[in-house]
Amino acid sequence: MSKLYELPAHVLLALYASGQASPVDCTREVLERIGHLNPLLNAFCFIDEQGAIESARESETRWLAWRKQRETGFGGANAPRALEGVPVSIKDLILTKGWPTLRGSKTIDPKQDWSVDAPVSARLREAGAVVLGKTTTPEFGCKGETNSPLTGITKNPWHLQKTPGGSSGGAAAAVAAGLGPLAVGTDGAGSVRIPAAFCGNVGLKPSYGRVPAYPLSPFGSVAHLGPHTMSVIDCALAMNVMKQADARDWTSLPPDTSNYLIGLDDGLAGLRVAYSPRLGYVQQLDPAIEAAVKETAHAMESLGARVEAVDPGIEDSLDISFGLWAAGAANLWRQLSDEQRAVTDPDFRSEATIGLAINPEQIHDFNQRRGILGSTLRQFMSRFDLILTPSTAVCAFDTRAAGSAGLYDAQTMLGWTPFSFPFNLSQQPAISFPWSLNPDGLPIGIQLVGPMFGDALVLRAARALESIRPVKRPNAL
After folding, report:
1. DSSP sequence for 59-126
2. How confident is the model at residue 74, as a pLDDT?
3. What residue ranges do the domains of the chain occupy?
4. How many Å apart are CA 144 and CA 432, to the nearest integer?
5. Which of 156, 174, 204, 468 is least enclosed by beta carbons within 10 angstroms?
6. What residues act catalytically?
7. pLDDT in tens, 367-397
8. Per-residue burial over 13-29, b = 16 or more CB atoms within 10 Å of its CB, e = otherwise
């Protein structure tokens, strides 16, 4: 029988319901594994073992009472909640009541009053999840790899010399290594999808506003929150919890009462898919990744989709994405004292320095061109249900220490991930899911992009492909 830490959330819930497994046993097993592997991976920066066990005991009590009521027909037991007893983790950019949120930075005082849950943190607790702790992030989520002066280097469970990506690298490494089947990340230019691709997980960037945020990101309306999971089913399960409205986020979408698990297995028949392996402008693409996305296109055709090789007609938006990001970094920089600035990540410092030189006319131009890109993609999606691309142009590369890359400019930060940031700018839902391994045994991720508010459709399509290509797990650990 599989170890409990190897199992996705939906399987754990079925085992809890039948009495074949308990939340306490599962949580203890996961915590033991964290104790063994976190010194190697550096995926967690904060762990609350006592709180996790207490939460698991509460969940176990609910499951026991519920099973007894079903067997006897008597009693008024509270029904198990959507994630009752499932171990989860939260990225250390997201507020968690009672726990420090240091954002990968030495500039934040850990001793302040941590009295607020972000919307997603509150929803997970309300759904019965066992929240284990916080996962690592680069400083302020500033890059697509996970290292910082505060927490050091986070490593990829598939190969300890490789990066898990970023900025949700701790979340991705945790899920891939069996340190909890669900982790919450953030995605401002690919920060959920990049590490999902590098670590062989499923990672969803929902439509902007679908998962509320509080406080709003300093990087503006490119920033999204989304789940890292072992399977697409788990991703849908998590989204049912995370997508609840919260009035603190004035940009959040109206309540969505739909159940993303319903229709998840409806398949691809009749869906119109735009196959765009280079988006019309990507010059450098790993041949193994290009072959994998081509194979995915053929697989979608075999499942009944109508696949057409066509580019969406957008420009390379690297300068827009990086420019808006650098401007946000500059605003953060202005809020820091000289003493705080002295202990920041040199990579963040580079971004902020570039951002300080961006003038209001450039910001206006970035936003105007962003609007054109978004309009072009919305019109394109009137002809297609989905866009199929690689998740990244490269597989996981070697880890490096914070500040070791030299000038941290647009090319260094985002040039190797040209498929992710356009859809932060357009705010469309996009999912990365694992498809195959490259010749070095590293995961290759495939991206599906849907129309605005088409989150359920993106999940449905990824589920169809997952059903014929089950997720592989790293065996190096």
Report:
1. HHHHHHHHHHHHHHS---PPPP-TTTT-EEEEETTS-BTTB---TT-TTS-TTS------HHHHHHHH
2. 72
3. 4-468
4. 15
5. 468
6. 91, 167, 191
7. 999 999 999 999 999 999 999 999 999 999 9
8. bebbeeeebbbbebbbb
